Each structure stands twice: as C-alpha cells, then as structure tokens.
Amino acid sequence: MYRPDSDNRIMYRLLQALFAVYCLAQVARMSSADNVNSSEFDKCDKVIPQSSIKMSKVTGRWYVIETIHHKLINDQRRSLYPRVTLLELLWCPYIDLSYANKHTLEDLKLLWEEEKGNIEYRFKINDMDSPGTWISSGAQNGSLVDEGYKQFAGTVFVRKAVNDHMWLQFCSPNTYLYSVVLSRQKWLDPKVVTSIIKLMDIQNLPIMLRTQTCKSSSSTARATIWLTVAVTVLCFRLSDLTYKTY
Fold first, then answer.
1. Which residue blocks in 73-158 are alpha helix, DSSP H?
2. Which CATH superfamily groups domain 55-220?
3. Which residues form the signal peptide (predicted)?
4. How far apart, in whole angstroms, are the C-alpha atoms of residue 85 and residue 123?
C-alpha cells in the first residue's frame, strides 16, 4: 500500500486546504448572487427603462420567446431546479397590449394568454415623457388567478423596444423580479436573446432560471427557411440546366 513520505504528506495537506478554500469561495459566490438579488434590485430603483419609446410601436400582439427569472420566489426555491436552469417548452404564450381607455394613453391593459388560461394586468403611465415605466393598477383577473395566486403589485420597465422584439422587466419590491423577451413572430433570432443576456450580465442582473417557449414554432421557422433556400437553389440550377440545353 502506498504511504506518502513527509514531503508528499505536506503537499497532500496543502492540496486539501486549497480545495477547501475553493469550495468556500464557490459558496460565497453563490451567496453573493442571492445578495445581489436582495440588496441591489429588491426596491426596483436601479432598473432603467429605454428612454425613447413610441407607444404605437409597442401595442398589439407579442409572442413570449423567453422568461428569465432573476430571483426565485419561495415555491421555486423549494424546487429541485439547479442554479441557472434552462427549460424548453413547446407551447407559445402571447400577450395583447392595448389601451384600457380609448380616451387616454395613460392606462394600459396587458392580456397574457397561454395553454392553461389567461390573466389580465392593468397598468398606468404616470409620466408620458417617460412611457417605458408602467405602474400596476388594481388586481389581476383571468382564469389563471386562483386562491394561491400572488397578485403582482409593482412596476414593468420597458428595457428595450424595437420593431420586431421587446424586453420587459417585471419588478415587485421584495417579491418578483423577472424579464420577458417578446417577438412579433413566433420565433426570434437566438443572437437577439444572447445580446439581451449579455446586457443583463453587464448590469450584474442575476439569472436564476430561464424558460424558453415557442420552441416548436422556432424549429418550424428554421425548417421553413432552409426549405426556402433549398428550393431557391434547386430552381436556379434547373433554370441554368434548361438554358444550357437550349
């Protein structure tokens, strides 16, 4: 049986000590991530919306491409999900964003529709010079609201809004903190989502759980694009052969 000499014993103990320090550092890093959630973002005062937004470009139907949780609530903490889990779902939720009152642009209605049912949110824009900040107004309604539902009372920030995609961040003090990436179509270029994730990382916004939806739609879209390219190439080749024949 191998018996380490004194020098090897010292090296062995040193490696044990280094490993212990590494483990403690990892625990501290994971704890600090939770502290970032609670200390920096719990009051929602560090979230900055997009400065220039045209509400006419924001209203209408948007498909939910990904939901990103920056903070896990109690039910999620008790789950078996490891840190930064990525879930992929086939169904494709969508939202319809409209004005709640045709006589004013300050009141918004957001209807969330998914396979299990729907939920309606009401928001108010207090400053039309900064329309990217929506304050929750009243309780939510819909078939998804049951006795165990925790009402969202907080602010939605429009972090990014362009023609084909939008990033909304929901923040409720000491409770909810999550982002929703939306698209006008049932799919979105993965590079766009990656760029948003990079922005979150730059802003030290923790990512605890990612849920990607509309996966079947994105696969179909990619297949359609490849089929279109293949058919186009085939048509060019056939036309070229026909031209050479004559």
1. 74-77
2. Calycin beta-barrel core domain (2.40.128.20)
3. 1-33
4. 30
Q: For position 6, what pLDDT does the model report?
A: 55
Can you give the pTM of this predicted structure? 0.71
State the chain's mean pLDDT as an integer.
78
- Bridge pairing between strands 107-114 and 117-124: antiparallel
CA–CA dist 62, 97 (Å, integer): 8
- Domain range list for the chain: 1-40, 55-220
8 Ramachandran zone, left/alpha/beta (phi>0; psi -120 to 50):
alpha
What is the tens place of the pLDDT at every residue in 167-190?
999 999 888 899 999 999 999 999
Residue 59 Cα distances to 39, 52, 215, angstroms: 33, 15, 24
Nearest to 127 by CA among 43, 180, 59, 53: 53
